[in-house]
Design brief:
This protein has 346 residues and is α+β, with helices and mostly antiparallel strands. It has helices spanning 6-17, 43-46, 49-58, 127-136, 138-159, 163-173, 221-235, 311-318, and strands spanning 36-40, 73-77, 91-97, 105-110, 118-124, 185-189, 192-196, 203-212, 244-247, 254-260, 263-275, 280-290, 295-304. The protein is built from 8 helices and 13 strands. The strands form 2 sheets. Strands 6, 7, 8, 9, 10, 11, 12 and 13 form an 8-stranded antiparallel beta sheet that branches. The chain has a 5-stranded mixed beta sheet with strand order 2-1-3-5-4, covered by helices on one side. Helix 3 runs parallel beside helix 4.
C-alpha cells in the first residue's frame, strides 16, 4: 500500500481541526508564559509619552516582593508587523489612537485569535487623551491582566490538583481548597495544615488555619498579622533552636479587601522571615469568614527562592487561594470578576 505524502496528511489534520460539529472553527491554544504581555502600537506613538505611559503602567512594581520586579514582562510589535504568529500570544494590548473616537475607552475580547487569550484594546481620539487615560487607569490595567492570569490558574487547578491534600483539608476544616500536584509534603497540627513541594530552589508552601471569629476588628492588617505570627511560631519552626517563622515588620504588610466567591476576603501581602535564621521571602494570605461556624479560615501561600525572581513563583501559586470554598459554597463556580469585563466587546 502506498504511503500518503506527509504534507497531505498534515493538511487533512488542519482541515479536521478547522471545523467542529458543523463548521465552527477550533482555535489553537495561546502561546507565551504567565505574566507576559505583548503591546501592539504604532512605533512613533510607542516611543512618545503615550507609549511610555502604557509601558510604565504595565511595568509597575509588584507589591510585597523583596526585590523590585515588574508586574509584567513586556514585548512590543509595531502595528504593521502584527502578524498571525504574534496573534497567538496569550495577553495582548492593542493601542488604537484615531480621531474617529470621541473619548478614550477600554474594550476587552477573549479568545480573539487563540484559545485562552485576553485582548485588551485601548482606544483614544489622540495621543494626549490616550496618555491621560492610561495614567488614570494604570491600576485597572494591571489588575485586569493579573486577574486574567489568576483565572487561568484556577481553571488549571479544576483539571489537575492534589486530591490527597484536598481530602486532608476537607477532613480537618470542612472546606475545599485545591493545590498543585507538586505540593505534596504535609504537616498537620491543631486546626493547621501545611503542604510544600520541599524544593531546594523555587520552594512553594501552602498553609491553612482557622480561629474563632470575634468582631469586625478581626479583618484588619494588625489583627491578622498578629494572628499569623502566633500560628506560625507554633507550627513552623526552623532548622536552629529557637527559630520560627514570623512576619517581616521592616516592610509594612499590605492589607486589601477583595471579593472571593462573591464574599468579603481580607488579602494580606508581605514578607516572611525565620527568626534566628537567614531564610525569608514573600507571602500572600486570604482570610475569609465562615459564617456557618463563626470562624475565620486563612489560606496562605509563601515561597522561598534565594537570589531568584519570585513574581511568577508566588503569583502562579496564589491561584490556589481563589479555589477556597467554605461551607455553603461547594459546587459553586470559581468566578473572578475582571475589572474591565463590563466593557467586553460584542
Amino acid at each position: 500500500m502506498k504511503r500518503k505524502p506527509l504534507l497531505f496528511l498534515f493538511g487533512m489534520a488542519l482541515l479536521l481541526l478547522s471545523s467542529c460539529g458543523g463548521g465552527a472553527p477550533v482555535k489553537f491554544g495561546s502561546s507565551g508564559k504567565p505574566y507576559e504581555v505583548l503591546v501592539v502600537m504604532n512605533q512613533a506613538q510607542w516611543e512618545k509619552p503615550a507609549g511610555r505611559a502604557l509601558y510604565e503602567a504595565l511595568t509597575t512594581q509588584v507589591p510585597g516582593l523583596p526585590q523590585a520586579e515588574p508586574s509584567f514582562d513586556i514585548s512590543y510589535s509595531p502595528t504593521e508587523t502584527f502578524d498571525s504568529m504574534l496573534k497567538m500570544v496569550r495577553n495582548i494590548v492593542i493601542a488604537d489612537i484615531s480621531e474617529i473616537y470621541s473619548a478614550p475607552k477600554f474594550s476587552y475580547s477573549p479568545d480573539v485569535w487563540a484559545a485562552n487569550q485576553a485582548v485588551l484594546k485601548i482606544q483614544a481620539p489622540d495621543e494626549a487623551a490616550f496618555q491621560l487615560f492610561v495614567e488614570t487607569n494604570a491600576d485597572r490595567i494591571v489588575k485586569f491582566f493579573n486577574d486574567v492570569e489568576i483565572r487561568r490558574g484556577v481553571a488549571l487547578l479544576q483539571e489537575k490538583y492534589n486530591a490527597d491534600a484536598e481530602r486532608m483539608i476537607k477532613d480537618t476544616f470542612g472546606v475545599e481548597l485545591r493545590i498543585p500536584n507538586d505540593i505534596n509534603k504535609y504537616k498537620t497540627g491543631e486546626q493547621f495544615f501545611w503542604a510544600s513541594n520541599d524544593a531546594g530552589a523555587g520552594r512553594k508552601d501552602i498553609v491553612v488555619y482557622s480561629f474563632p471569629y470575634t468582631d469586625l476588628n478581626t479583618f484588619t492588617r494588625d489583627y491578622l498579622v498578629a494572628k499569623r505570627d502566633s500560628v506560625m511560631k507554633i507550627n513552623i519552626q526552623g532548622a536552629f533552636d529557637g527559630s520560627y517563622m514570623t512576619t517581616e515588620k521592616r516592610v509594612e504588610p499590605l492589607y486589601t479587601p477583595i471579593s472571593v466567591m462573591q464574599s468579603y476576603c481580607g488579602e494580606l501581602r508581605g514578607l516572611w522571615r525565620m527568626e534566628k535564621d537567614m531564610m525569608g521571602g514573600p507571602f500572600v494570605s486570604h482570610a475569609r469568614l465562615d459564617e456557618t461556624n463563626q470562624r475565620v479560615i486563612v489560606a496562605e501561600v509563601f515561597v522561598f527562592a534565594p537570589e531568584k525572581k519570585k513574581r511568577n513563583l508566588l503569583e502562579v501559586t496564589e491561584a490556589s487561594l481563589y479555589t477556597l470554598k467554605l461551607p455553603g459554597e461547594f459546587g459553586s463556580s470559581d468566578t473572578i470578576e475582571l475589572p474591565i469585563a463590563e466593557e467586553k466587546e460584542k
